[in-house]
Records
---
Amino acid sequence: MPRMTMIESIRDAMHVTMAADPNVVVFGEDVGYFGGVFRCTQGLQQKFGRERCFDTPINESGIIGAAIGMAAYGLRPCVEIQFADYVYPAYDQIVSEAARLRYRSNGDFTAPITVRMPTGGGIFGGQTHSQSPEALFTHVSGLKTVVPSNPYDAKGLLIASIEDDDPVIFLEPKRLYNGPFDGHHDRPVTPWSKHPLGEVPEGRYTVPLGQAVVRRTGAAVTVLAYGTMVHVAEAAAAETGVDAEVIDLRTLLPLDLDTITRSVSKTGRCVIVHEATLTSGFGAELCALVQEHCFYSLERPIARVAGWDTPYPHAQEWDYFPGPKRVGEALLQAMEG
Amino acid sequence: MNFPTYRQQGLLVAGGYPLVDMMSQIFSNERDPLHGRQLPVMYSSKSHGFFSISGNLGTQYIQAVGWAMASAIKGDTKIAAGWIGDGSTAESDFHAALVFASTYKAPVVLNIVNNQWAISTFQGIAKGGSGTFAARGHGFGIPALRVDGNDYLAVYAVAQWAIERARRNLGPTVVEYVTYRVAAHSTSDDPSAYRPKEESDAWPLGDPIERLKNYLIGKGAWSEERHAQHAAEVEAEVLAAQKEAERHGTLHSGGKPSVRDMFEGVYKDMPPHLRRQRQQAGV
């Protein structure tokens, strides 16, 4: 089976869907001729032509607004916002337009668009190349929000997203593009070629939206994570020796609540981990749901480990990033009492 | 495909959309085509080439350009028309639309309906130092025209020209229609708080229907009697449609859209969390 980085598997997903469906178009800033700043769209213009993969002016609202118009025509746009940090000018188009179009027109018009965005930190990108804005999208009815953690899932989830008839926010943890980064920034990252989830089948397959997966089986405590934090949590469990069950949510909305409640009902303990800022983060929603659905199974208060409530700093990146040390401490604390 | 604002319901009427359906949406009753989910005048009808009206200003302008780009990508001959008011040309999406239309030479007609008032602010607030709204098009290298929007024949001629340009794949055209909002912005607006009554009484540029009537009478193609008869027929048709719509209920009495419908159509397939909430709501 071919081995791919997450960049290659994401590119392969677009390749597969563009080849299968002439209505799939790909565009964004630097996406066409150059192939994207992270090279996710490299070669697509050469293969499918300038009408199916093209560069846009630097105008995020224009990118999403044009995509909505194209979707209303009958195309299936998969667009790239160069960094999730740049999506805010397009927020009105996403929230007030794409997310509501099916509802407000009673299904007369729909917006089957996929918005790909590199998310998260770990590359010394400072406050304009490191943010994790997923909660801004999970809060919006009408959107689906996806965060893959590995090349296999990224391809299957992206194909499922492009084929989906509703707008999908597809957040790609950029620190995972080239390897399963576990938060140990002072060590070289294992390449995806040496990781089982770097094995990516050729051709079309999907990872259905709305299905979480147990990444590490354990009996003592449940860790809810997604994106980069899945690997950080796995590292923290291995390093502390805590028998943690790590759940990779994969899709934040619709959320796979069954997998979560099954695990927490078994372990009775729950630690929620995300890179985004703590307050009103997606962890708050997870915390509320676990409390509502697993209250009588809980042995300890639910813990959250997240980015501090500050803008993403530059020089202090590794003091901000919730790495394996902080997650490990939360695991040990969850096992007390 | 038209990408209208809430000032373009005339496009629907001219396109033969049933008046009873329009009024049923105004009443948010059981026959409301949008099932009570959208504000009364924010219509939507794909089969009438009328894109769903948003209410957030300017967003539809760039969407019209995207629709036109899609038509061009597919080698189709269909064109799009974007609509915007003078005030909303200040929105960033107006500029997004013009730069995309210019860059990709999209087959789109970009209409600016300059009715001179954005609720309480005169057109100068949006226009700034620019001589006209049409001139905005020139900055993007897009041919632009400015026309007396209350002159039926001039409007028709200009629109035909711009549509022809788009159909021949010669690219976008900006058209500014200078008109005047003689009435209030909405039913909750009181223009006497911000502009002299004499101004609206004088009706700058005049009543377009009156002007067309006088022109046709002068040409011997119409008469006062036929006009009065026609006006009476139209009024009777509108009143009959209103009565018919009222039979299906109003927002406050009679037949209403179902509460269950509130949960439908958020997604193509209802996700589990909405299903749980619908159960909680007891519908």
---
Amino acid sequence: MSNNEKKIDEISGVETTGHEWDGITELNNPLPRWWLWTMYATIVFSIGYMIYYPAIPLINEATPGISGETNRSVFMKEMAAAKAAKAGLIKKIEDSTVEEISGDSDLRRFAISGGRSLFKVNCVQCHGSGAQGSPGFPNLNDDDWLWGGDLDSIYLTIAHGARYPHSEETRSSEMPAFGKDELLEKDQIADIAEHVLKISGFEYDVSKEARGAPLFAENCAACHGADGKGDSEFGAPNLADALWLYAGTRQDIIAQINSPKHGEMPAWKARLGDASVKQLAVYVHSLGGGK
Amino acid sequence: MATKGETVETFDAEAVNSKVARNLYEARKKVFPKRAYGTFRSLKWWVMGITLGIYYLTPWLRWDRGEFAPDQAVLIDLANRRFYFFFIEIWPQEFYYVAGLLVMAGIGLFLITSTIGRAWCGYACPQTVWVDLFLVVERFFEGDRNARIKLDKADWTREKIFKRVAKHAVWLLIAFSTGGAWIFYFADAPTLLVNFWTLKAPFVAYATVAVLTFMTYTFGGFMREQVCTYMCPWPRIQAAMLDEDSLTVTYNDWRGEPRNRHAKRAIAAGNIVGDCVDCNACVAVCPMGIDIRDGQQLECITCALCIDACNGVMKKLGREKGLISYATLRDYNANLDLATGGTGKAEDINPISTINIKAMAAARAEKTPEAENDNELPVAPSQVAHTTWRSLARPRTIMYSSVLAVIGFALLTVLVTRSRLEINVIQDRNPMFVKLSDGSIRNGYEIKVLNMIAKPRRFNIKVEGLPGAEISFEESTEKFGDAFNIDVAPDQVQAKKIYISVPKDQIKQSHSQFRLLVHEIDGDEKSEYVAKFHAP
């Protein structure tokens, strides 16, 4: 390779690179001009690019570039713009009651889509991705509500939570532990359970139920009502319907009377803000069970 | 004897774009096509006028569709996802009509190519039409072939600068109107025109015009034959569609060869002479920069201008027209075999030329057997095959036509009988069903009613085949029985979330099918959707 002599391929008349493999030589055809010029153009472009954008990595960070623009700053700008674009509707939601929001078709649509995404982030952990709930965590699709299913009640429940120790206005009630605290005898609890089975439409022991009915009226009706249909004032569940917060077997009912479990839900107004809670309320109300 | 005043202009024209002449590592050699006169040139003017007319004027045609739809006859409304073509309106899900049209266009091209060859390339392709248009401008400012070659070589004088600037200015104007016309297919043309000039049009309109202006200018002004030769796949594909009965522009060497510029002298010297006087007129007019006498080649777009040029020369010389002609390969081969005595080799050609035919006729008239032997014509003129319209009707073309007709008929049938009302249903899957406090089971559905005509309509939606079904909506738990009405705006989709609940005692199985029927209240149109109801 040391000689500077040009080697010309005999057949094509084109200069060769001088490289040779088993008698095959490599032609040194010139690159197409347009290709070469494109490459030079990209080099020029890359210089401008390096000056304009952060480009050269240093020890702690990269050169800032005269634009100072990074993917992150662009993202932040876009987020701010998105927030600004929604500001008008958010303001309107803040200034309206949940009833008004639900009545205005534009606001309602905005609230439901906003509520849906808020729900996916904040609520699905307990209530499930389809708001279908699980034992101890209410199903929000159905028409059975512990603390009331109208827009205002749903709003208040989400805003202040239930039995949430850090909120003054939280929904609060507690069912006595009739067995554990020895308020009632074991037999009496079993008798009351038979009565609950009866009003729920299940099979029950007639003689036990006869003893249980007066006990129910005496101990339970104050909150659950004489007919067992519950009272959302106290978050007392409806015992006469087909739905159960925990489960509806004899054993489960006895366990609940003996030592009740109570659900707890955080207050969201302080965390998410009023507008978000209103959107959530309208969304939850739209799931089909809203009153 | 057959030559009457050989005052035929001979051109110093080189086939710069023929395969042998072009080197890959070499700048393009410019082609300076001369203006042609004749039948095919006239036909091309007509085709140019019609195709350009269609392109520029179509967006301005109006078509009344009532108050709720645009009145532009042809409109591709991307924003609203509608395609309007006169009386036809196509929604995105009906795009298969367009697919069907494309299939028809494809088969149409097969048909055209297998019968009349590359007629698309030579007459109707936008590249051909616009290059032709650009050449008109070029000729107007710079003159015909020789003047242009001279100007191209000349130094930059004031005159040359003026001519060049004027030419490019008009080219840019044409390019701009070409790009400008394109955008009118995608929005209401008069509105967009005003907005365009008042700078209120969307950015994409300006970008589209800019890109298309640039493309038209470069493709029509500079790249020209290179687009067809290097960029276009069509010439390569078409080779597969041509057969020996397809019309191609053919140089009939069986009557033209051996070519000779000095026929008189050659005849006097006792040489065989064909009809071709090697004047290069066919090369001079060729926009592709090739020599048709080299035979069929990929670069030839079959614009037939060489036929016009050659026929002019033949007429001047008093020889028969058609030395270059539209001919099928079958006829050409038959004639070549006649002229060569079956060898098919160029050097064996004893041309069936006008000169020879006349000489033989004269010899026969004199009845001198020697003369007949000396100037022997291999065949009688009546044996020469002439390509006629019969080549069009062949099994292949008849098959293409039938397929085309069948698809066309099927599309038309579907189009005429298509429904303008549709209902789509998406069932809630999370949760699949909800148990209510009275024990009944509820399913949720997002229904979409498509009112595909430009008129507001009211529809009734009814649940059928689901005993005890009750419909309720998002707003409350109130029940509305098994049917409700819905209003749908003109040409719109109306979505509605509905819940259907079935009492406990009516639920027999975990999956049951039912139908959601939709029918127009003030009309007959109906549609239905078979949906499922899930229960535990």
---
Amino acid sequence: MEIIKTDVAIVGAGGAGLRAAIALAETNPKLRIALISKVYPMRSHTCAAEGGAAGVIKSDDSLDLHFGDTVGGGDWLCDQNAVEYFINEAPKELLQLEHWGCPWSREPDGSVAVRPFGGMKIKRTWFAADKSGFHILHTLFQTSLKYPSIQRFDEYYATDLLVDDGRCQGLAALEIRSGEMKQFQAKAVIIAAGGAGKMFPFTTNGAIKTGDGMALAYRAGVPLKDMEFVQYHPTGLPNNGILLTEGCRGEGGILVNKDGRRYLQDYGMGPETPVGQPVLKTMELGPRDRLSQSFWHEQKKGNTVSTPWGDCVLLDMRHLGEKKINERLPLVRDLCISYLGMDPVKEPIPIRPVVHYCMGGIHTDIKAATPVPGLFAAGECACVSINGANRLGSNSLTELLVFGRRAALSAIEHLQSGLPASKDAALSAQAKASEDRIRALFDRSAGAETVAGLRKEMMHTMEENAGIYRTGEELQRACEKIAELRQRYANLALTDKSKVFNTDLMQALELGSMLDCAETVAVGARDRQESRGAHQRLDFTARDDQNFLKHTLAYHHPKEPPRIEYLDVVITKSQPGVRDYSGAKK
Amino acid sequence: MSEERQIQLEVLRYNPETDSQPRFQTYTVPCVNEWVVLDALNYVKENLDPTLSYRWSCHMAVCGSCGYMINGEPKLGCKAFIHEYGDHIRVEPLAHFPIERDLVTVVEDFIAKLASVKPYLIPKEDKPISAGEFKQTPAELMKFKQYTLCINCMLCYAACPQYGLVPEFLGPAAISMAHRYNQDSRDGGRDQRQEVVASDEGVWECSFVGACSEVCPKHVDPAGALQQVKVASTIDWYKEHLMPWVKK
């Protein structure tokens, strides 16, 4: 097996991975950097983020307000020291992107424009029309081309981390083109491989969002944190889950039920605000968890509109007018027309909540370091934790930048800490074990199980039992079913036995990652007997700070369900309080 | 809207380990009319033939992974609607790129060309982050915004007859990206990019057929960009050779 020696290996080349790579290259041009991704960088799912990135820049805003919005939005499950670091670094990172050429939308005087977003008290979301993630990703990718020390390994799939002597020292990866395994020996590894929304059938996430980075760390002994918190975005196209940005509501779009009522006022987010004059942090600019939960109640009451794709409510943007829609929401208009055959300029658009984001992920401290020395993580795959029980829209794009860079700086500190020499034989043995694991998939003769079949059962299980509202009984069922699927997965055989660009193999590996992640979601949710943020239990309807102002830590076991431990939330200056999104508040 | 209909999906297959040359394989796929061709491919992968290989991810025309030739035209699989086609749809890998396997092409040539034009901001003036943003008016942004929309899907390379004939040609997307940065009010790197863009393999190879702009799913209009680059490069030439006393 070919051995590739490098200083820092990064798994994932989306926003966080690219930002980390650039920070490494800028800080020390002599470092050898291996940027490893299962897709070409510009295919990464950062490209699909629409609305924008939050960072305090305007004179009417303050770091304290961004802090308060984020911590309250997260239902006090955020680590407040992490949030503090995040909001402080945010403006610098967004300005840095501006200096790298990101085409942020502008005010008439040439300064960067900001737009309102859900759960934010002040307009602080930087945006590039409604293609913010796309522009951030391409700006980072193109900027990364400046640095010869960033060596890309495009279309390599990381299969296992190499952990020896208590330190992470590299990884094994499959070169997809050739089907050959490679051993990357690295002094530090940064995982920046995105979320796992594809555990669910109805999601805004692209096909590649299969939790590979999470599973990679998890299998190497790093706990996954707060995985039960899965964000539903309130406004997805009903037929395929395509995201319509929160910017739709930030610009003034309203949500109505079948009777034309702005139903959010019936769920603690009223009183009604004037149409076309959105008021921050109330009604349509409430947080995502509350909006998605309101949909569920409307559906139970029979107030939704039935469509060929299921029950919906309506997102009405007609009053914004064609000019504003074209200027601020061109992609949204294009997506509605292309994929639904409906024009938001002319008609209300049926929408429903859709799985969007994993608040949970690889457990890291505020320096983006995992408990395994030499292993760092950033972006959606990580849980640092700034998002708590519910992420506010436009914090995640900023998070990629802030903690992508932070992971790079931490990796450099690790490199400078005087590491002992690595033992080649031990690392090679681990890489060989990884190769053997892949080979077993080829050698096994076809049985009853297929990738598509197991995947369908997993998705169905998650949607039925681990959705917007949950019960202990359903979650127990999910735990049992996912455990069963994990066992059956052990008997999976490939149909495609060829080496070159074998996507049957890729999907099998991705399914393994998703099953690992799904089990942590189900078990974490079952054991969290309270309702907080995006985790709502019909059998435990109140938030329980006495017992659950804690992070869930799930530890991997090769055959058994994960072992669960809890970790106190870091509270510095904001004691848990009431999340008030009523317009009547002071 | 949700009517079903059967289509014959004819897909180019090629496995370098077992096939001496590409062949076609036809699948019968029950399609919902609102589907896109990518949905039909996914149906095949999930239900009929797990060995079919193709790239895709976002399913919303922004990641640029799923460019294929669909009935002979370069299209994104996720934006080619079944209802716009008859009952027989042929899917092949993007033209002008070597085939890796099935619908997967080798794209290194494009990536190298994109990198060669220095597609990043080369600032006109040094400015620390602490000094805040570069001011840029909406009008200045509009001068280049269209060219920022390229998703690197490479449909324009598959459509470009010149790229088919002269593989060294930098091609539409790379030149448009150079133009994007040249037009950015914050940038001062045009001279550096011109070395590549105005070379023999650069903009002068373009025969201005305009096919690139016709197939661009994001309306970037690379042909328009190339035309502007040609005009600007011609002016450069005149200034340099006929009016050497005038600074560029």
---
Amino acid sequence: MRFLLSLLLALTAAPAFAQATPPDALVKSITEDVIQIIRKDREIRAGNPKRIAEVVETKILPHFDFARMTRIAMAVNWRRATPEQQKALTEEFKTLLVRTYSNALTQYRDQVVDYKPLRARPDDAEVTVKSEIRQKGAQSVALDYDLERTPAGWKVFDVKVGGVSLITTYREDFAGQVRESGIDGLIKVLAAKNRSGETRKPAS
Amino acid sequence: MKPRNDVCMNALKRLGAALLIAGAAAGCATTGENPRDPLEPINRAIFGFNEGVDKAVLKPVAEGYRAVLPGIVRAGVTNFFANLEDVWIGINNLLQGKVEQGLGDVMRVAINSTFGLLGLIDVATDAGLEKHNEDFGQTLGRWGFGSGPYLVLPFFGPSSLRDGIGSMFDVQADLVVNIDHVRTRNTTFAVRTADRRANLLDASQVLEEAALDKYTFTRESYLQRRRSQIYDGSPPREEESGAARPQDGLRPARAQGHDSPWAPEARGEALPHALIQSALSPVLSASGAPVSVGSTASALTTSHPEGNR
């Protein structure tokens, strides 16, 4: 009996833990974590790409669903891509997003992030966590995260800055490249863009 | 005509001419790849021109401006002009029926112009009065006007037929453009332009890094941004929004019924249509643009095909 009880506890404990962090708390803890690190780290603010990549990779990437992001950005063309192309697209798009996001992080100074109360039902599969970046002497900027419930916890699949989606903005951009030179052409353009970014000097 | 209105009138004339061309071309229904951007070839040309101007003049000036002036001075300059703008922002909030925000803007101007040393310091924000972002294009959107075709205006940059018409009112209401003394006006205008561009240096750097095709990326960002602004940051979810279903990557990029450039941006409150129609008709008939505001306005009373669940 006792054994059964402990087995039951062990079985229920694992999924309970995976769902333990609600989406708004998750976004908040990631953001505060990253802000703390940037505040302490002069090298990040100076644009040291290695240090930034480290923070992004360990703190942010695990909570992002890049496969879904790529699917959204590719829209109808996703279905037309072979599994290999889909894999390459996801990889290149991930690199591009991470780099853009990382460079934006270096521009962080002393902004304060405010979180809006979460409007969602407990059984919602997708929620939007809304926050606002406040800076002295400037209009605040809305920063919204779309998250989906997965077995591995909540995952971000879109970020909107000032109402502009980081992901859907790419739809027409991608579609244009595919129209011009096919899916392989798009992969090539993405790869070239990513390579040019590597050699670029860090933002001053 | 009094000389004080020269800059203003020239800007208006240029804008009017651009809208005229755009409107006429829209009438010819040049089919581009994107239904919201039927004038893509022309827009691209103007975009290239603007980029050239930016690269040759605006960006270097803004970089110099940022390098020479300490941050606190630049913040003062930004605040000063932001305070002047708050007047027109307040009027637009009131025109949109957002009385609380509008009165907040009036309070902001009152507080910042006095305690904030003529607007150099934004004390109103610290006092809990939030800064808003409004213009006449947003007011038109709030009243139910769809954006119309996307336009890139010379010098003004990304716009749309609706926002371009809105800009004509914004320029008229611009306190800087209406300064009497010519030299003061030109200097003030130049400083404001440099300051604005300097504030965008970081953002344009991000754009440079993120976009595959800068023109497309700018257009998509602009259209999303305006939609968000009209709804003050919480637009209803679009059918095509990424936040739909997991398999939405398989859907066509363009949602049905949403891509008509004339689709109403906001749920139209019927009242102001007649008002705005009469207000705009001289502008439109003067420019000869083949745009019937009447038909647009009546189309706007149809309900908005929301993808909101």
